[in-house]
Automatic annotation (TrEMBL):
Protein name, as recorded: ATE1 transferase
Keyword terms: Transferase
InterPro entries cross-referenced by the UniProt entry: N-end_Aminoacyl_Trfase (IPR030700), N-end_Aminoacyl_Trfase_C (IPR007472)
A GO-annotated cellular component: cytoplasm
Gene Ontology molecular function, alphabetical: arginyl-tRNA--protein transferase activity
Domain N-end rule aminoacyl transferase C-terminal: 66-160
PANTHER family from the UniProt entry: ARGININE-TRNA-PROTEIN TRANSFERASE 1, ARGINYL-TRNA--PROTEIN TRANSFERASE 1
Annotated Pfam families: ATE_C (PF04377)
Naturally occurring in which organism (per UniProt): Tricholaema leucomelas (pied barbet)
Top-level taxon in the UniProt lineage: Eukaryota
Length: 160
């Protein structure tokens, strides 16, 4: 097994030379693991949502995320329902000391705290809580639907 780090932005010559082959591996993965049809668009399957009650995507997915968090905590960590309610979810994974910031030379999404939502068939099946900072991305927490544990979403999220 040989692993290469290939710069994707700006695209290096290696990235350009291997793009089609990489895309075909990605497409096959989506079809086999996620049962996507060959022509299914996948642009919205992973969404990076700023942790902000001002953000419409965050607000509209909050209840689904909080419910998934409770399901995960009770199944994986054996928490009681009172230990993983909406208030606990908000305190643990939504209240962040980081302030959102957009820098001209920074990423398009800006800096701050985000929920990286993994969607399948119209529902969230995993959420990676991450902080995007000027010199690193910090993985704060990941929770997933235990019904999809066979997908190894923690490993997938770390590699992604």
């Amino acid at each position: 097994l040989k692993v290469r780090v290939v710069r994707s932005s700006p695209p290096s010559s290696q990235f350009k030379a291997t793009f089609q082959e990489s895309y075909q591996v990605y497409k096959r993965y989506q079809m086999v693991v996620h049962k996507d049809p060959p022509d299914k668009p996948t642009i919205n399957q992973v969404r990076l949502v700023p942790v902000s009650f001002e953000d419409p995507q965050f607000k509209s997915s909050f209840n689904q995320s909080a419910t998934l968090f409770a399901k995960y905590q009770m199944a994986v960590h054996k928490d009681t329902p009172s230990e993983c309610g909406e208030n606990e979810f908000t305190r643990f994974l939504c209240d962040s000391p980081l302030e959102a910031e957009t820098a001209p030379d920074g990423p398009d999404c800006g800096y701050g705290s985000f929920h990286q939502q993994y969607w399948l068939d119209g529902k969230i099946i995993a959420v990676g809580v991450i902080d995007i900072l000027p010199y690193c991305v910090s993985s704060v927490y990941l929770y997933y639907d235990p019904d999809y544990s066979f997908l190894s979403l923690g490993v997938y999220s770390a590699l992604r």
